[in-house]
């Protein structure tokens, strides 16, 4: 085996530099602005030059450290391991056995594209919250990335340890390069214009504002606002509308850029998602790591016949925060099944649902009344005539409860459990028995009296768990699900088989 | 109808819960005394003292007597060859099924109060969930931990 050491592309020094700079930019701006406003008043003398001098030094330091990082970084293949050596001051080595690598993820940023480079992220099993044994190759050529993949496949095929692996290898033969799903421009626009990105934008705005909070002279602004309000409510409303409009447009553009050319392919038992306009993202998702599939229809999109498909994947940090990956961000409902059929071959896509019994209907809204009553009472008391409007909450939550009641259902199909429920959006979850970590049946005193109970299942998602709840099922149905989940008593055959192991 | 799990947790666990209840009641008592003092300096309404003491008494009754008792009666567990079944809950009764194949590790834990009564709690972890059986005799808990870990190793997927 060749022990030739490979280096990253020199551009990675620049990428490192820019990355650190990006993290520092906000505090830096704040400092500069504060200096510009506050500093100029008292002196404008040599003290301000010192601060600028410090920035200069910091910048140079960052640049140099970026270069050193690049110089020090090298990787090579040895003994079926990906070995990496890196470190700014302290030399560190990290050896990752190929067989433990779950997936390689490629990203192409704006710096990568002109040179035909990719960023490679190495994902390992487990990983856990510590994120040990993960590696990132900031910028290498596409050929080098392919080479890593080849080395990995070679190392993995050398020793098919488990039975499952052999089966998988056989299935690999019929590769499928054709995209399973490609998001149309029309769908992309619908997604962009209806996505909840507005909220994200506002939270971003809030964060931004909080960074500046000690700079903003609130009392002056307050006075101005008072004047502003005198201009009349119309202008205020207009301003708010304009801000919302701008926020919406920004979120549309961001979504368009992020989800541009969204494509799914299935290769070697992996789902490969590529998307992005400026930064091309490629996410590889081994099918064996997928724990559950959920179809989410929020009421607005449900009316127009659209839905989102999300998969839960175990371990790693693909989607950074949680492992709910949107494999179909937005799709016509009628198109879901043909796509899912190609990805998950053994999924029962049209299960026969058993709904929750009629007698459990009141459970869906009765509890809501409990918190509405005091709120409505308080609102009516304090804002007498208009407060009466809060009484509308009762029919609203009643109707919503009925809606939730009509949605709640389950289906057992062989080794699969399908659960359907609604909190606000209608969610249908497909789970395999062997992916369910635990199952709980839950009954309150009132539920028990009416002979209904709630079923809660947990599957692994990311490093934690994803909980699925179908409320107020018929007790008999709930027990049917529990019995289905209960591992079968080992038959004599199996016991004999186990003997030699002990 | 599914049968209930057969094992109960140690009777000494009930006593430990009562001790926890006493601590919680002491906090409630402190708050009550505080409210009483405020009342003394501001309004000094006689009926308010009665309300405060009644509330504290009620809390004491619930936390020291009733809740631990109900919880203890409800708490049942059973470790079978292929699965672990737990049942617990005060107002809401939960029954949880954990297949042996899903068990990743088992821990026993012993705080100062539990140690005094020679008790330990046992926590069963899967890849995504944790399940705790609160108060078992230490020797029993150790044995159970061993047993679960052996069973978990032997258990096979029936898929």
UniProtKB/TrEMBL annotation, chain A:
The chain crosses the membrane at residues 20-37, 49-68, 188-208, 228-257, 363-384. Residues 70-150, 259-328, 406-485 form the YdbS-like PH domain. InterPro entries: UCP026631, YdbS-like_PH. Pfam families: bPH_2. It comes from Psychrobacillus vulpis. It comes from the Bacteria. Keywords: Membrane, Transmembrane, Transmembrane helix. This is YdbS-like PH domain-containing protein. The keyword Amino-acid biosynthesis does not apply.
Automatic annotation (TrEMBL), chain B:
The keyword Coiled coil does not apply. The keyword Transport does not apply. Keywords: Membrane, Transmembrane, Transmembrane helix. Residues 72-148 form the YdbS-like PH domain. InterPro entries: YdbS-like_PH. The chain crosses the membrane at residues 20-41, 47-67. It holds the Pfam family bPH_2. This is YdbS-like PH domain-containing protein. It comes from Psychrobacillus vulpis.
